[in-house]
């Protein structure tokens, strides 16, 4: 169970407070600069990291994400290879391609953009990708590694959140963390990664009754529910760190997260904006995993022999 903690802030101080905005674009920029140097070191040894991206169908959001990922690869010197299939492609076609990519020397990461059309079984696709090239961190081996704190490739979005918290020197040990959203891609791995860092973690989800009774206890609140304005100021403890993983497009075309940013920023100590918070970090950590994969190959490390977190 979560234990409540009281805020050290007086109401007068809290009234004047506005949160520090965590700049995901700037943090991404500095990580990408480091990655460029690591790519240069690999190039000097005759290896260029390579990422294969498989996209099926015409989902417009997926097309934008894939384009952003490939542009980011180019920016740091990673080769990217795009494999596009029509929406009615047979699962066998993709499974066969993955089998080929698993043994290709110039491919260090394989990513199948989700969602996939209904004829696909996502677990089957994900388990076909070699754990050594699973830079999304979705393979059972990598997911299982999170449970014991010994994963090879952490899933990119929660990995990005951890990097943002580290960048701001926000301590995790003993903190009450509430994760809203229990997806396999974000919520569950996020909770495991924070537990590994000795936080006290509570996961809430769509069936949670009275969400606010949990969120109000959070020193650190991570929201990945896909619902605009789900988190309003009354649900947030004064001085909390609020990380908004949501990306929602309103009918007006505006991009917003899951948090009422203008309201909550007056109550929180740190907050991530949407866009410009967690989003750029997801792509950056994909690059980081791809570079790490190439380095592992260059050093002769096999995932199933040896893992690092
Ligand atoms: N679709 C939405 N987010 C992701 C992601 O992080 N990886 C993949 N492969 N597909 C996604």
Structure write-up:
The chain is α/β, with parallel strands linked by helices and 309 residues long. Among the domains are: 11-22 and 168-279, NAD(P)-binding Rossmann-like Domain (Rossmann fold), CATH 3.40.50; 46-130, Leucine Dehydrogenase, chain A, domain 1 (Rossmann fold, 3-Layer(aba) Sandwich), CATH 3.40.50.10860. 40% of the residues lie in helices and 14% in strands. The strands form three sheets. Strands 1-11-8-7-5-6 form a six-stranded parallel beta sheet. Strand 2 (50-56), helix 3 (60-76) and strand 3 (79-85) form a beta-alpha-beta unit. Guanine binds at residues 111-114, 136, 156, 185, 282.
CATH architectural group of the domain at 11-22 and 168-279: 3-Layer(aba) Sandwich
How many DSSP H or I helices? 11
Assembly state (oligomeric): single chain
Largest sheet: 6 strands, parallel
Mean pLDDT comes to 94
| Helicity level | 40-55%
